[in-house]
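Structure ticket #2291
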Amino acid sequence: HLPFVGFPGQRPIVVGDALFAELDWSASVPSSHPLVFVAALIGVGVLLAGRGSVRSWRIPVVGGAFGVAPIVVFGYIAQRYLVDLVPLLVLAGALGLQSVAARSSRWHRWARRGVAGVVVAAALFGAWVNASLALQYQREVAPQRSEAERAGWLALQQRVGGSFEVVRIDTDEPAPVAGPVGQLLVVGECEALLRSSGSRWYLLENAEGAGGVRLDLDAAGPIDAPVAIMRSRSGNRTAELVVEPAEESELRGGSSVRLVVEVEVEVEGALTRSFVGPSFDLSSGRQTSLEVQMDHRAGETVVRDASGGDELLRVQIALPVDEPEPVTDAGLDVEVSSLPTPRCDDLDR
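Resolution: structure written out below.
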């Protein structure tokens, strides 16, 4: 599937007993920069031959090689460290290409055209590979992307075409270990759709049966005390989504409120943890709609304004797995409906 080229199927493997702080996704220089790599090899060969004016290139090329040396002792592997190779590759590669161009004047016309075609093809291939790696990392691997952005990227991939590796589990099954980058996990009858970053699952979309609900709130008047609008229970754990008046420093008017997730564990000396979001407007006489995605497999709860998409709360905690239920209150009417799962539905077509 788009972009059709990506990182290797697994992260770098440690040879021996060296200790690394992180083994992040990384491609090799020959595969991601084939033209520059081959040209640099030719350039190094020309320098070793040491003929004529090329000797003056030795100092800058050796300097570029010394610039690469520090990355060898880093206890961290990542794609960004390939940047440290650029001075060496560019200097040696420029010398290599110039050497080939100088010698090509004695070649047959078709040989020159063939070499030029290979150079252009290798340059285009390198540009495609690096653009593909950037897109894959940004849209499928990096943790900073929102659920909507990840789902939008999958939608584009579906439109372009291609196959996807899909794992299916029943609703009550735990999520398996995250597979290769881009692998999809379908829960039940499209109750949830998650995607692997190679190390963890990220939620793309979920329906009511898996904690994805739309809450339509109608306030009878100003909210002057905490009001629970949704509750989820599992075993001795209870989680509530609460609307409460905003702090004085956050007030934007009499209708400013904020969301709070309260998680209570019923054990001796009950433990309650609270997570607070930013303030937003909840005016009486005007319906406010929220999109809530609670999924214990991704270990995260996200609440957004359904009209503008603004994120009102994000909690990185595994909440109870039972289907959430709305909580009614005299001053706040709550209607619940399921969130759609269009990307998951497309996989079954």
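Closing remark: The chain has a mean pLDDT of 86.
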